[in-house]
Amino acid sequence: MANGMTRVLHILDHSLPLQSGYTFRTRAILKAQDGLGHAVRGLTGLRHTAPLTGVEPEIHDDLPFYRTPGKPSGPPGLSEWQEIGAIARRIEAAAREWRPEVLHAHSPALGGLAAVRAGRRLGLPVVYEIRAFWEDAAVGNGTGNEGSLRYRLTRALENEVVRGAEAVVTICDGLRGDLVARGFPAEKITVMPNGVDLALFGQPLARDADFARSLGLGDGPVIGFLGSFYPYEGLDDLIAAMPMILARQPDARLLLVGGGPAEAELRAAAAASSAAHAIHFIGRVPHHEVDRYYALVDVVCYPRKAMRLTDLVTPLKPLEAMAQGKLVAASSVGGHRELIADGMTGTLFPPDDPAGLAAAMADLLEDREMWPARRTVARAFVERAHDWSRNAVRYDSVYQTLLTRKQAISGSAA
């Protein structure tokens, strides 16, 4: 490490050009670290599904990424073991070429285990960053069951990475607290909260009234959700609340932008609702067009259901909405409470309760005089505590501690 610059190789499940909350956080981290003077590259495992270009490293948005060729194959257990080996070998090859000083692996655990294995062979410190517990994410997505064999094995692999890494990072206090409760030392775990790249989300567009009318939104007010339609997001509760919201706000409209596993059921529920005329599905839109739809929305609503995933993990979307100058309303699950101060930066309502959601939303829509102040306070909160250009500095102390420790060990060995 020289002149404050560190060479960091980030090990990732997937990356740009794929678009997801995972890739957007990765992009923000790498861009911010690059802006601070660090040299950064990414390396993806076998789960990255974009076609390989044949050029190494691939460049996307001026960021370089190494790829691990191949696809997962074979029976469960053996397939994952082979996958870890393939990623570890790719890390070693990239490290011999590029000479990183730190391996920074991001969940899930397969990449983390590969980084720990490669780090030991290379003599490089490993930072492991947990964005969510993937066994809980599988439950939330409807692809897993809490307490199942797969759930327990995924949790055991995560524990193995946490033990093997020199430092651990989580995106929120909920995840950190859960690891400490498992017996891991608190001093090993640092919180790097979700952030917003204000260069991307900090300049909201003006509302296009003609565009709003073309979508059937009229003059509003407009409640919006922009994101993935997973069961745990609770959009069924929002749809169920719409008739009660219309009883107090007849001109209110609901704009749903995105798609996902729960989409078919949500569309059916909306079609059967007495508020069907006020619920508008847009489908997925390119990321560069999201701002245009944000501009149509007065209140962005996040009615997440209560479960381990939502209680432990802070989402990124409410921060993006605050940066866009939007009012935010959300269920009072743990992940939301860590981000939103009720009555100050947003409105909280009880989870899994359409009537409670409707009452809170109607109250918010009726109290328009406080909207400008709420938006100002929320935007200032993002700038102060969740701007990636500031948050990324927190990694520096973690890297510096590990490199100083490595130098001390090397010196004593000499």
Automatic annotation (TrEMBL):
The residue ranges of the Glycosyltransferase subfamily 4-like N-terminal domain are: 21-195
Database matches in PANTHER family: SULFOQUINOVOSYL TRANSFERASE SQD2
Q: What Gene Ontology terms describe what this protein does at the molecular function level? A: hexosyltransferase activity
Q: What is this protein called?
A: Glycosyltransferase subfamily 4-like N-terminal domain-containing protein
